[in-house]
Amino acid sequence: MPISNNDASLIWLVPALPFLGFMVNGLLSLLPAWRGVQDERTPAGRRALVSTVGVGVMLLSLTLSVWLFAAVSNQDSAITSSLGQWMAAGAFTVDWALSVDHLSILMMLVITGVGSLIHIYSIGYMADDAGFARYFAYLNLFVGFMLMLVMGANLPVLFIGWEGVGLASYLLIGFWFGDTANAAAGKKAFVVNRIGDFGLLLAMFLLFANLGTLDFATIMRDHAALSTPLVTTICLFMFLGCAGKSAQLPLYVWLPDAMAGPTPVSALIHAATMVTAGVYLIVRNAALFSAAPVACLVIVLVGALTALWAATVGLKQWDIKKVLAYSTISQLGYMFVAVGAGAYTAGMFHLVTHAFFKALLFLGAGAVIHGMHHALHATHRHDDAQDMRNMGGLMRRMPVTGALMWIATLAIAGIPPLAGFFSKDAILTAVAERALESPLAEASLGPIPGRVVLWFAYGLAVLTAFLTAIYMTRLMRYSFHGTFRSGADVESHVHDSPWLLRGPLVVLGVLTAIGGWLQLPAVLPLGPTAVLDKWLAPVSGSAATLLTGSGHLSHTAEYVLIGIAIAAAVAGIAVAFITLKPASLTTKAAAPAETGIGLVLANDYFVDAGIARAITGPIVAGSRKVLWRGLDLGVINGVLVQGTAQTIRVVSSVASRMQVGFAGSYVWAIALGAIAVIAAFTFRTMR
Amino acid sequence: MIREALFVSAILFSIGVLGVLTRRNALILFMCVELMLNAVNLSFIALSRLHGVSGQVFVLFVMTVAAAEAAVGLAIVLSVFRHYRTVDLGRIRLLRG
């Protein structure tokens, strides 16, 4: 079905609907304050209205996206629609232009699909919260901006979405802002992202200065005019933006803290969609990146190091959400290894499957926290509902959640035939293939040959896969198996969540199980192969070919690579089962302090403390001593403000002392002055 | 002739200035001011020999203004006396800063 112009003019509705939901729910959230009442809990009637609006706009957006998917699948070109001119300066113009092509429709389906599920889940999860309407307003706002990000036909529109999702993320991390730590976590996310956005802005400026355009289509067409060092610079700046948004080394520090927000938010924003925006941006600009092999090697290296770094930290976290947060960082590193190596399909594939299984894991963790919280609340205990040491044996109390989380765990570990296995294998195979023979292997990163970088990244990725299997199995064994460690009275109050929460989990579980069929490797006879490859070919196909070698891996080599991936996953699970001793665990309150390497890992290599000492501390001290005490109090207040007042006071006290009040002294002054004037005139005429 | 007249005028003026500077009684001060004015009048008359009648016309104006000034000034002195029961300027320090 070729799409007509009338249809194209409707695509603005996709992001507009969530924005509408934001406005309606935002107004509803202001209702109690306007009527001067303080709700303990949002009344059921208003809750129904808010959920209908919040979920309704998501389902409408999803329907529109599915319809657009059908429209776009029969054509290679993008459906573009401009809502009018935004700015014009000479020959340079920027339109409010949205575009739907094979890449953005994939993202739109993930955002609206997973987003709808998480919205539905949130109805149950947030039911007891006084800020119910505010929550849905923010969530809708996020989806609107995220859709704008992926649908923008030029960099400025993308940037609006990019900043907008940052804002929504900030609002939702600090959703329970009554607790200072949550508000601080939101601020941290904002500030760290600002560093990355600065890079993205510089990339935009460079593109504008050298190409005179910021349209993706024009950039794709004209980028050959740029010199290689320039393209490399632009790509590296752009990657700085991606590192901020997608939590890569060294800008990942905000993501673990972002877990302060409600758990469905962590699932939607900090696992499935927003943090993958960086991956999307690189695939969107694949033409640029494939022309800059050095930048690609940097991305591969940073991605691989991030993957391993976060995976090691995940080994020693006790907070169930923190494990998943570090796991997200690690998997994002995987995606960057893929897109850095020019395997754009593999990167997008992992993005999609990760959205499924990580959303499932987070929502499952949310169900666990929900259950634990209610049980601890019912027994008037104040223990940590998120700490795995306080759990154990939950499988008996929450069988559905537990089973679904096991599916997601096996998927993220890379056990066939679940989604994670195929996407992870696609990445590992692509990296190995390019390390063997490709233009990327011939390039070099400073003194290091590209081949070495790629093999190094491959090694780290396999090691990460091994560690991933360990920490995920650890999470499952500690929370779902063994004995319940918080006492029998609490255990009797733990229940599996209502179907409103379990329903989305089941859908995500199915997607996790079958998501791998999007892109089957040619070597395995399971169905139509490389569907996603063909689907993305109009967007990133030519760019991917630029970085791929001419030869193909032999079937034996592919089997070996698949074998290595499976072996790493199985070994990880086995190691976790053999070495971990859930029976010897004690509750958080009774747990002994960590020592040695465990202490280092549990504190994320002391990165936060290091940043506080090396960067934040000196800035604060410098601001206090130089800017506040020195400049503000010293120069501005001391010299300028009080100095002026002091001068006037001294002058006026001298002047007022001359006013003695005796008419006689004034006469004397006048007489002496007159004599002086006469004398001056006289002497002048004499001269 | 002009020389002598100007000499007398200068002496009169100096006496007036000295009186203003040294005396504290408001009435005497007032008389000294009149003395200074009349010294100026004398030099106007004398110099009109050289520069025409405009000097004499000026003297008429000065006398008119002096009469008005005397009326106002004496009225002020009178009300100052009523208020302070003295015309000693050393005791009146309203202008002190």
What does this protein structure show overall?
- The complex is a heterodimer of chains A (687) and B (97).
- In chain A, helix 19 packs antiparallel against helix 21.
- With 687 residues, chain A is mainly alpha-helical.
- Chain A is built from 28 helices and 4 strands.
- The longest helix of chain A has 51 residues.
- Chain A is globular.
- Chain A starts with a helix and ends with a helix.
- Chain B has 97 residues and is mostly helical.
- Chain B has a single domain, classed as Orthogonal Bundle (Helix Hairpins), CATH 1.10.287.
- In chain B, helix 1 runs antiparallel to helix 2 and helix 2 packs antiparallel against helix 3.
- The longest helix of chain B is centred in the last third of the chain and has 31 residues.
- The model of chain B has no long low-confidence stretch (mean pLDDT 89).
- Chains A and B meet through helix 27 and helix 28 of A and helix 1 of B.
Quick synopsis:
The complex is a heterodimer of chains A (687) and B (97). Chain A has helices at residues 5-8, 13-35, 44-72, 102-125, 132-151, 155-173, 180-211, 216-222, 228-245, 254-257, 263-272, 277-284, 286-290, 293-314, 320-340, 344-378, 394-397, 399-413, 419-436, 439-442, 450-480, 488-491, 499-514, 531-547, 555-579, 596-602, 607-657, 663-686, and strands at 79-89, 92-100, 444-445, 448-449.
